[in-house]
Amino acid sequence: MREALARGRDYLKRRSVENPFLDAEVLLARVTGLDRAGLYREGERKLAQKEAAAYSQLLARRAAKEPVAYLTGEKEFMGLSFLVNPAVLIPRPETELLVENALLLAREFFSSGEPVFLAEAGTGSGAVAVSVASFMPDSFVYATDISPGALAVAEKNAKRHGVREKIVFLEGDLLSPLFALGLTGRINIVLANLPYVPTARLKRLAPDVRRYEPLLALDGGPDGLSLYRRLIPQARRLLSVPGWLLVEIGPGQGAGMLKLLEEDAKNAPGGRPWEAEVLFDYGGRERVVRAKIG
Ligand SMILES: C[S@@+](CC[C@H](N)C(=O)[O-])C[C@H]1O[C@@H](n2cnc3c(N)ncnc32)[C@H](O)[C@@H]1O
User: Which H or E element spans position 116?
Assistant: First the structure.
């Protein structure tokens, strides 16, 4: 294993892969079925021919900048392992802030045993919906996506983590499928990590992201906020009073998002204001907007 690890690391390093050692470890663990500690316990073992061929293939794909999570088919989020494929965005660690804040809200404002109804627009792999359903007792989630391929992955993840009965998956644009279910005024918390990269910036994304992750999960329109601009009035109609909207944003989008919320209050008939604030991630960057209505 030691020899294979060194070979993989040197190969990826020569091809300017960012974390060559870590990636070689993860890919070798995948091929051998060992965990990372096992690679060292079996340090002297030579790879079988089949293993060596599979490993070389994965290394070549990684050198072409294919993300490790697509190569292994899994990504950890909130301590849970999620299935991923190229139909879904790979869940990012910074999105845990969105989930953590939803859990905090539920703990602060809902008594134990009281059901909490949530809606998530753009569920992708289901990372957010499944984590919330797993960690929030008495929660029920309506999760949408416009991509049937993404919904298929999200459903598998819900089954994988034993929360399939707590989530309804709906195909459609943003939260519009919820209106047909008569949920106006019935949702306590709306969550979303919708695409927010401004279109002109897409070409500047790292090749791993730009070449392999779905454009549908990234492109947020001219200012990055096109989808949120349409989501806010839908959230207002669906939310109970009080109700909360929590969305992930990119650094520098806080002021723009607060402005959209103000405009929404002005445009809504009898418009209640949103009480909104920007929350920062552990790197000190704007990451989540939390808005309360009522
Ligand atoms: C940035 S990804 C987030 C995925 C997942 N929620 C997460 O945090 O890892 C955005 C998701 O929104 C979906 N999406 C894009 N436009 C949409 C729309 N108009 N209505 C519903 N979902 C949409 C994409 O298919 C993608 O799965």
Answer: strand 116-121
